[in-house]
């Protein structure tokens, strides 16, 4: 965990870039620093690896004041990804990824293994790419390398300063998705700077909104969207986005909870009975750790009407899912785009909470929109 | 036409002597430039790392460069006497400016984002210099080396006036004996040497540029 206590930064020219910052970045979470240009996001981030030294207050990593740690050692233990990618053009992809392990004097075998593992992790075939130069890769591929270079020496903290903002919109979305996926595996403490609210909503566990060197609001994306602290926050989020998140019910409101959840080792007849009782056509298969294992539709049940089989034998994989707090509208769009009629609802911390089905959503929306309106002029 | 055949037959008859002069010539240039590299690159690094020193170092090298070559060599002769060492020292002084300046500019030209990436990942200033800045400024350094080589090959032709050897010996002999053929027999190889050095080092520079782009 990282804690900033009463941190201030006054630059050499006397400009006060940070005024009394008190924040916590939780272990294993993606914390997004967001705010208008010049509000102090980069300054805040660079305090953490001492590229910038604060002038007042304390920065603590796992309780240790970082001003007592040698900056070179500190930086080698923290991953760093910059907006301009910053791959070394005279080094191969392998040499770039291996940069920090080399500084740490890992042996060549260990480095080789790590590079291969990392390239595979972001879908770059090691044999094809490891000896190429950065200039021979697309922008999106280069920044994938930028990200794994930061991960190479297995730091527990990663700093990312607008890492995807220089990419084209398609690559940007892909890398955001990949980061969210990757984070499930690697569970790092990630500090991510952006000025793009959609990006923040998509990837953040926690959003820290800044303005003029101060923290204006801090919370989960849903918390901030549903309760913006003041006019500035509302404006920053944008009327349109706010409208959407405020007025539209979210997926939780129409979610089937326990009734739609079965465990993988449940016998089929029992699952069928549960389905009938609750008038469902789809159920979600969730294990003891609340991880989604698959789904079960009424058709699969009919086709496999075998009393000896278990749920796990007939279930189908789940391709799409939605996060808690997703507006109904977005879930419906997703459903029609991919022609599915049920989606598991996932909470970033708690795992799978339930299932929304198209039928229930349409019923629910009909109820909302057919509510008697006040007669008026 | 007649002159050309005469020149060619002169060069053919004296090829071993001319070759020896060419090698002497090259040797002086190589020594001079190697010394300039050994001194100039560190000075360039100091300029880049410490902006305070840059104006002093660069203008000193500039002043040396401005002194006419014959004058500079003559002054050196007063202190070092006649001979090989004096010539090499003169060539060294002449090569300094392009090498210092290009080292300095090359280091300054390195993309600041790469420096930030290197520093942010925990490179020490020395590692940053040797792993990032110097490799990336090699094309500039090579350009300085090329300019220095071409200048030194030219300046080295006046070596005989201060007791040196090289192709200048043939030229001076030609001047003294009013022999046009001897002058050309010395001047043509010297010119070819300069062109060749320019070409080869230019190719090397291009290759380095590709490796660092
Ligand atoms: N080295 C510096 N000297 C003086 N002022 C600076 C320096 N670096 C940044 N600033 C100022 O501090 C403020 C915050 O900068 P920064 O943290 O880079 O903002 P952000 O990343 O949010 O766009 C800006 O107003 C910027 O002009
Ligand atoms: Mg910034």
Describe this structure in words.
- The complex is a heterodimer of chains A (377) and B (213).
- Chain A is built from 17 helices and 16 strands.
- By secondary structure, chain A is of the alpha/beta class.
- Chain A has two domains: 2-247, Rossmann fold (3-Layer(aba) Sandwich), CATH 3.40.50; 252-367, CBS-domain.
- In chain A, the strands form four sheets. Chain A has a six-stranded mixed sheet with strand order 6-7-8-3-9-10, sandwiched between helices.
- In chain A, a hairpin with a 2-residue loop joins strand 9 and strand 10.
- In chain A, helix 7 runs parallel beside helix 8.
- Chain A starts with a strand and ends in an 8-residue tail after the last helix.
- Residues 373-377 of chain A have low confidence and may be disordered.
- Chain B has a single domain (2-212), classed as MetI-like (MetI-like fold, Orthogonal Bundle), CATH 1.10.3720.10.
- Chain B has nine helices and no strands.
- Chain B has helices spanning 2-13, 15-49, 54-66, 69-80, 84-109, 112-120, 125-155, 168-176, 180-212.
- The model of chain B has no long low-confidence stretch (mean pLDDT 92).
- Adenosine-5'-diphosphate binds at residues 11, 13, 15, 17, 35, 37-43 of chain A.
